[in-house]
């Protein structure tokens, strides 16, 4: 992830059965509404989950960001993810600048995303 023309990225690993993952969906939805696609790319990757259950949950919550399905755990392994939720902030160059193990507080996540988008 990352190129000179790319937007910074919020990357979230989640699963439909994960309670903290389910609890953070409204916050992620709000962040997606706050920033344009040019300002912030958002990708949710579900793993250790069935595609059907993940889609049902994401649809019921009105997920408004890109979703990926890591059925073999390849992407999770590449990022060192073994449990959900985990959230990464990645700058325009593709460098991971922040990582949360578990669900960050709403304020902490919003401030970090704002800094990422502003480049600070």
- Helix content range: 25-40%
Number of strands: 5
Instruction: Flag low-confidence runs.
Output: none
Number of domains: 1
Which outline best applies? Answer: globular
**Helix and strand succession?**
EHEHEHEEH
Q: Estimate the strand proportion.
A: 15-25%
Largest sheet: 5 strands, mixed
State the CATH class.
Alpha Beta
Strand order of the largest sheet: 3-2-1-4-5
Compute the CA-based radius of gyration.
13 Å
CATH architecture: 3-Layer(aba) Sandwich
Structure in words:
This protein is α/β, with parallel strands linked by helices and 120 residues long. The protein has a single domain, classed as Glutaredoxin (3-Layer(aba) Sandwich), CATH 3.40.30.10. The chain contains 4 helices and 5 strands; from the N terminus they run βαβαβαββα. It has a 5-stranded mixed sheet with strand order 3-2-1-4-5. α2 links the parallel β2 and β3. The two termini are 19 Å apart.
């Amino acid at each position: 992830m990352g190129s000179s023309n790319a937007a910074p990225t919020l990357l979230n690993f989640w699963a439909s059965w994960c309670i903290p993952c389910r609890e953070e969906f409204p916050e992620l939805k709000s962040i997606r509404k706050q920033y344009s696609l040019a300002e912030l790319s958002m990708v949710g990757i579900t793993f250790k989950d069935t595609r059907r259950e993940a889609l049902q949950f994401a649809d019921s919550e009105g997920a408004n960001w890109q979703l990926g399905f890591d059925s073999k755990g390849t992407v999770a392994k590449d990022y060192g993810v073994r449990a959900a939720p985990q959230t990464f902030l990645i700058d325009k160059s593709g460098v991971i600048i922040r990582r949360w193990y578990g669900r960050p507080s709403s304020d902490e996540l919003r401030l970090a995303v704002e800094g990422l988008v502003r480049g600070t």
